């Protein structure tokens, strides 16, 4: 009888300890699926991110906002994922996602809980290295500019390439470049731990010699990027 009670107590304790971790993992998986939906809708819109820029992008950060859901972007905080091209020179296919958080967002069109999606294009290796290492202030530690849409990008692609990050937003169905100067972007380490079930830094996930396999929840996000821009174009 004592052995049975001990076994029941042990199993109950294990459930108590494992349940929060499983719940956190599901939360991050839902965030990845939401990011996939956002990038699909944006890349299939009439005026979307110009392919001339997407083909030169090293990494893409997608921060979805879903009203009445777990990923609401309020006036100051958003969470999402970054996916980068693999390979030493960012010439391979899109890889496993690292989770990211954006803080200090403050825009009038978010009033009243309006859902807003953000997409950031990381255009060069210096930008990637800065973002992978620590928290960065946009417009301070790294350069950032409102991204062009449609034919606006074709006129002066080189000028846009000199900026480390190009940023976009979608709110109330309107997709446009938006300035995020003053906000901060940093790896969401707790989210990565929950998603992969082990401690991994953003650098290990994106650039490590033994990068993890992307979770199935990221399949749609990665496949949409691969379909839209399977091969990089040199600057």
List the SSEs and their pairings:
Blueprint: H1 2-43, H2 51-54, E1 59-63, E2 77-84, E3 98-103, E4 116-122, H3 125-133, E5 136-137, E6 144-146, H4 157-161, E7 165-171, E8 174-177, E9 184-187, H5 189-196, H6 202-207, H7 219-228
Helix pairs in contact: 1-5, 1-7
- Unreliable runs: 10-18, 66-75, 108-112
Quickly give the structural class: alpha+beta
Our count of helices gives 7
Count of the separate structural domains: 1
The first-to-last residue Cα distance is 72 Å
Q: Give the biggest beta sheet.
A: 9 strands, mixed
**Helix percent band:** 25-40%
Averaging pLDDT over every residue, what do you get? 82
Describe this structure in words.
The protein has seven helices and nine strands; from the N terminus they run ααββββαββαβββααα. With 235 residues, the chain is of the alpha+beta class. It has one domain. It is globular, with a radius of gyration of 19 Å.
Keywords:
235 residues; single chain; globular; alpha+beta; nine-stranded mixed sheet
In brief:
With 235 residues, the protein is an alpha+beta fold. It is built from seven helices and nine strands, in the order ααββββαββαβββααα.
